[in-house]
Design brief:
alpha/beta; Rossmann fold; 4-stranded parallel β-sheet; binds iron/sulfur cluster
């Protein structure tokens, strides 16, 4: 029995319409969370091959898996899970999406250059191979001697066994597309961080596409690698990876042989902004002589737009970690932005809708006249960087939170 059959009923109130990025672009009822739910209720897809069936199939792809609908539904309907289960049942992920996921999964093994060359052949990724990233993926570049476990920076003295053990999860984009972001994050912390080099993709893109078995394989690999070192904190600089790692215990529920280890991983995950907001001394050191509330010394960075990724905005708890961090620092963005339209496989499979959502965000940036767009999600950063390189964002350079903080005076 899936979420749809056993779950709560949609009351048709429409509260989810305004928050759905797809509906806000198309204004088609069938693209709204309510519309998607009711298409399934009416069972229009029960006539295989019919126009109605094809329309339902097409509609099921028009979801970013952002989770916005579930966060506002008073009836407790979780359209995101219903659609994800449906995608899995129908094995609806296109060949293009499957191939792109395979490249992302094996990118670090293939090497940065070849992975980007292959990705650049996919719709929307054209030109990505000219980004001139580091020759080697981040996890290869930091390898020390023959170890499969690096400590960053290399310790000058034996690591204190009583100190909290922090492990780092890089994620695909930071590993082989934007390795500078992972370096910025680690340099900010300036303390020993343990980094297992065989870690892989978090599995979010596969799970969103309904490829649950692929996601479980990817997750199982990370669970085994990280639980072997038993970190107190599993830190990541990507809000989307953090959200997926937090869900490992659901992917391996009670009764699964991996459940206990998966729960350990899920419970120890911290996204960079949430970690920094809770570390008073570290935050003071990063902000340095900058006085809270005095923003005049930030002229190179201000005004800036803060892009709050869906996986931060709609994460359990209901408030955004990156917004809380900026509030703690007393730095106010000129404008706060929502969904960028990336959504992993959504970007590949729904080029028109994805571009429409991004164009709306781009217009907001241009209207606000900001110098920077700051985010804490690697996927959003990559998507925004594509817009910047096309000239759509004008002078507003996208920055990861870690780079923004490292540029503070
Ligand atoms: S899914 Fe929830 S929020 Fe959306 S129309 Fe139905 S009851 Fe209302
Ligand atoms: S998960 Fe996001 S994109 Fe999908 S139906 Fe819900 S609000 Fe819309």
């Amino acid at each position: 029995m899936n979420s749809f059959e056993k779950g709560p009923n949609c009351a048709g109130c429409g509260a989810c319409l305004a928050i759905c990025p797809v509906y806000r672009i198309s204004f088609l009822e069938r693209h709204s969370p309510r519309g998607k739910y009711h298409l399934l209720v009416k069972g229009l897809d029960k006539l295989p091959g019919s126009i109605a069936d094809m329309m339902v199939r097409d509609t099921m792809t028009a979801c970013l898996q952002c989770g916005g609908c579930a966060s506002v539904c008073a009836a407790g309907v979780d359209v995101r899970s219903i659609i994800r289960e449906r995608r899995e049942k129908e094995a609806s992920a296109s060949l293009t999406v499957r191939k792109a996921l395979k490249i992302m999964e094996n990118g670090p093994l293939r090497g940065t250059g070849l992975a980007l060359k292959l990705l650049s052949m996919f719709p929307g990724f054209q030109g990505i191979d000219s980004w001139s990233p580091a020759e080697r993926p981040f996890l290869t570049a930091i390898r020390q001697e023959d170890n499969m476990l690096s400590v960053y920076p290399p310790p000058s003295a034996p690591v204190d066994p009583h100190r909290l053990k922090i492990a780092f999860f890089a994620g695909c984009v930071q590993n082989f597309m934007m390795p500078g972001v992972a370096e910025d994050a680690l340099n900010l912390l300036s303390r020993e961080i343990v980094i297992p080099l065989q870690q892989g993709c978090c599995g979010l893109a596969a799970l969103s596409a309904g490829l649950t078995e692929m996601a479980r394989e990817q997750a199982a690999k990370n669970i085994k690698i990280f639980s072997a070192i038993q970190p107190d904190i599993l830190l990541t600089g990507c809000a989307s990876c953090a959200s997926m790692l937090s869900d490992y215990k659901k992917l391996f529920p009670q009764g699964d042989p991996l459940h206990e280890q998966a729960a350990w991983i899920s419970d120890s995950v911290r996204e960079l902004s949430s970690f920094l907001a809770s570390e008073e001394q570290l935050l003071c050191r990063i902000t340095g002589p900058f006085e809270y509330g005095n923003q005049t010394c930030l002229s190179d960075l201000l005004p800036f737009a803060l892009q709050v990724p869906c996986h931060d905005r709609f994460s359990p708890g209901g408030s955004s970690d990156i917004q809380k961090l900026f509030e703690r620092m007393g730095i106010t963005p000129a404008i706060t932005l929502g969904c960028c339209g990336f959504g992993g496989s959504f970007f590949i499979g729904n080029r028109k809708l994805s571009a429409g959502i991004r164009d709306t965000l781009v217009s907001e940036v241009r209207r606000a006249g900001v110098k920077r767009v700051v985010t804490n999600c690697s996927g959003c950063l990559m998507h925004l960087e594509m817009a910047y390189r096309k000239g759509d964002l004008g002078e507003a350079r996208p920055l990861h939170l870690a780079r923004f903080l490292s540029l503070l005076p």
